[in-house]
Amino acid sequence: LNKRKIKFYFSFEGGWASPQIKFDHRIVCKKAFLTSDPHLHTEFKQSYFIQSKVDYILTFYYRPFLKYFKLVPKEKVIHFPWAVPDQFVQQEEIRTRRNGEVSIFGGSSSEAYDFRNWCRDQDGIVSYGNSGVENKVFSDQDYYSWLQKLDAAVAAGSFSSKYQMVTPKYFEILASGCLLIGQYCSDYKHLNIGPTNSLHFSTKEEFLK
What is the 3-state secondary structure (H, E, C) of the chain? Predict the structure, then answer.
């Protein structure tokens, strides 16, 4: 491959999900990086972005990214939230499934889930062990078919602000036509998540209301 022909470079989490490239700055091309959890390897990634003279950084978590990457110019940062494939989005009119549950599910073995685990133990909450990574028991299609049988589901992470991010679970619940009861995160204002399609809480007291 003649590197002089490269006009645009896009990296999916370089150094983790894709190779880390050392750029020849004599070659003029646009460089964009997609990055995930901002609290992981922050110093390394920030240095790499600056040294590589990145043009755009796409992040799933906009305000948390700005909090951690203070040396990256804000104008280079693009909010690129999680998405759900069209075939899994509920197309029918949303109505009660008469399931009668407020459900919660997802991983539980990390400190990032301490608030979620507290929610699991509250009266009226039905807890399931399935998750997208830690305990994946459904295919993608079966997972959304299961979600579409629920009336309400809780999305929560941690008491620590370090882990308060709008993760895929928020979008999956909304896409299924299920009522989202979500732990409030700072990116809410950028995502049109509000009282028309969800309930939110920030503390134990608000959750118990």
Answer: CCHHHCCEEEEECECCCECCCCCCCCCCCEEEEEECCCCCCHHHHHHHHHHCCCCEEEECCHHHHHHHCCCCCHHHEEECCCCCCHHHCCCCCCCCCCCCCEEECCCCCCHHHHHHHHHHCCCCEEECCCCCCCCCCCCHHHHHHHHCCCCEEEECCCCCHHHCCCCHHHHHHHHCCCEEEEECCHHHHHCCCCCCCEEEECCHHHHHC
If one counts every other C-beta atom within 10 angstroms of the C-beta of residue 105, the result is: 24
Query: Which pLDDT value is given to residue 47?
Result: 93
pLDDT above 60: residue 106: yes
pTM: 0.89
Give the number of other Cβ atoms within 10 Å of residue 44's Cβ.
Answer: 11
**The token pair that represents 54 in the structure block:** 């990145």
Length of the chain counted residue by residue:
209
Tokens in use for 42? 């922050």
Q: Which of 196, 160, 166 shows the shortest CA–CA distance to 182? A: 166
Q: Which of 99, 90, 97, 98 lies closest to 177, judged by CA? A: 90
Residue-level pLDDT at 30: 92
Report, as an integer, the average pLDDT of 129-146.
89
In angstroms, the CA 106 to CA 138 distance is 12
> Would you state the pLDDT for residue 3?
66
